[in-house]
Specification:
Pfam family, one: DAO
CATH class of the largest domain: Alpha Beta
Number of strands: 18
Order of helices and strands: EHEHEHHEHEHEEHEEEEHEEEEHEEEH
Protein name: FAD-dependent oxidoreductase
InterPro entries: FAD-dep_OxRdtase, FAD/NAD-bd_sf
Keywords: Oxidoreductase
CATH architecture of the largest domain: 3-Layer(bba) Sandwich
Helix content: 25-40%
GO molecular function, one term: oxidoreductase activity
Bound molecules: flavin-adenine dinucleotide
Low-confidence stretches: none
Number of domains: 2
Mean pLDDT: 96
């Protein structure tokens, strides 16, 4: 039987980055991907590097904003991880960190920006609050309707099509085994060690990491664990290429919008508009089929883009697509060891294009015994009660 120190389930950004970090540190690693590497959310996302507190955290109660403030500590680490990643991998990932503006169009949204910036300042994240004219002085492409913006100098974007394949290659160069088209179908645990099985193969591992994105609840169930992670179907749009107009990442504090210009000149427009998951016969969702694009989301997303950056109205839309990400029951990521099953680790949920490199580094350090206090807020321990009856 094959053996590894760590078995990783999922060949997206988190799985490949963790494989790389662990292999670099000398661990033997075997990564299994059911389909093709980077074919999940990691290859379909918007590529935003957003370090400001996300709009979705500002919609709810004060306590949710408080939890989001804890994410700021992780975001600050992510700024440094992103600044170093191209040199560390020796690959041009089209990383652009020329700043990001989160804009407001109403007086209520301006107040929300101010509340957000105060929380961020408390957590040591530097964000400037600009009035509309000051925002347009650095971003002249913004609409006159923009009343204010929070500006974070570190925000930006990178190319999701390049990052994960580069991480997988680096993991392999460091000695990890990476197998695509290899689904993990069974996980058993005896005397503290794991046995993973799929069609025609078996592997024994001291530790297992579930990094299966939207599929993580189902994969955790293979180990008889509840993990409250839910598939969330989103959509993205790309315009035709155009001359450089938007050097920044643009987000909106009150509407669903993210907008940026890629290295090739396309504008990528997203921001959390829903698509629709396919239904499985007999109940539940069928994640093997692509989510369906919704015309109302398409119209709403483009409306928000044109309202904020009027030039968008003159560009042709060339492509829209859907992708499915994972969100946990409390919206925070779930990253760490499962207390009731030592050796079983989970990393999924949240905005893991921005935070995935940081999760991977902290996971590798934690597995080596180093305490990572930044992971405390996202530990699976907060959902331990769900597994109390799982035997
Ligand atoms: C449309 C969209 C836009 C987004 N925009 C942003 C953004 O701008 N910024 C940001 O920070 N985040 C963004 N996100 C979120 C981000 O993409 C995800 O958080 C991140 O990519 C998750 O990476 P992952 O490795 O956890 O999961 P994934 O990339 O989904 O990888 C999980 C992998 O596990 C594999 N798998 C599942 N079951 C098994 C099994 N049994 N055996 C083996 N393999 C298995 C799957 O095939 C899949 O390849 C966006 C997401 C979407 C969908």
């Amino acid at each position: 039987m094959e053996r590894a120190d760590v078995a990783i389930i999922g060949g997206g950004l988190i799985g490949c980055a963790t494989a790389w970090r662990l292999a670099q540190a000398g661990a033997s690693v075997a990564l299994f991907e059911a389909g093709e590497l980077n074919a999940g959310a990691s290859g379909q996302n918007a590529g935003s590097l957003h370090f400001q507190i996300e709009r979705r955290f500002l919609e709810g109660s004060e306590s949710l904003t408080g939890e989001a403030a804890c994410i700021v500590a992780l975001s600050r680490l992510a700024v440094e991880d992103w600044r170093g990643i191209e040199d560390a991998l020796g690959v041009d990932l089209h990383v652009s960190m020329r700043g990001g503006l989160m804009v407001a169009e109403t007086a209520g949204e301006v107040a929300l920006l101010e509340r957000k910036a105060a929380v961020e300042a408390q957590q040591g994240l530097s964000v400037e609050t600009l009035d509309g004219d000051a925002a347009r002085s650095i971003a002249p492409y913004l609409s006159p309707a923009i009343l204010a913006a929070n500006f974070s100098r570190d925000e930006g974007h990178s190319d999701p099509r390049i990052l994960t394949p580069a991480l997988a290659a680096a993991a392999q160069a460091a000695g990890a085994t990476v197998r695509s088209r290899t689904r993990v179908e069974r996980i058993t645990r005896e005397q503290g060690r794991f046995t993973l099985q799929g069609e025609g193969w078996t592997l024994a591992a001291d530790r297992t990491l579930v990094a299966a994105g939207a599929w993580s609840a189902g994969v955790s169930a293979l180990a008889n664990l509840h993990m409250p992670l839910y598939p969330v179907p989103l959509m993205m749009n790309a315009t035709a290429r155009t001359a450089p107009i938007v050097p920044h990442l643009i987000q909106h504090v009150g509407r669903r919008l993210s907008l940026k210009q890629t290295h090739s000149g396309n504008l990528l427009i997203g921001g959390g508009w829903p698509s629709r998951l396919a239904q499985a016969p007999g109940g539940g969702f069928d994640l093997s089929r692509p989510a369906e694009l919704l015309p109302a989301s398409l119209a709403g997303n483009l409306r928000a883009a044109v309202d904020v950056v009027p030039r968008v109205a003159r560009l042709d839309l060339i492509r829209s697509w859907t992708g499915v990400t994972a969100v946990s029951a409390d919206q925070l990521p779930i990253v760490g060891e499962v207390p009731r099953m030592p050796g079983m680790w989970v990393a999924a949920g949240g905005s893991a294009f921005t935070l995935g490199l940081t999760f991977a580094r902290l996971l590798a350090e934690s597995m080596a015994g180093k305490v990572a206090p930044e992971l405390a807020v996202v530990s699976p321990a907060r959902f331990e009660h769900l597994n109390g009856f799982m035997g």
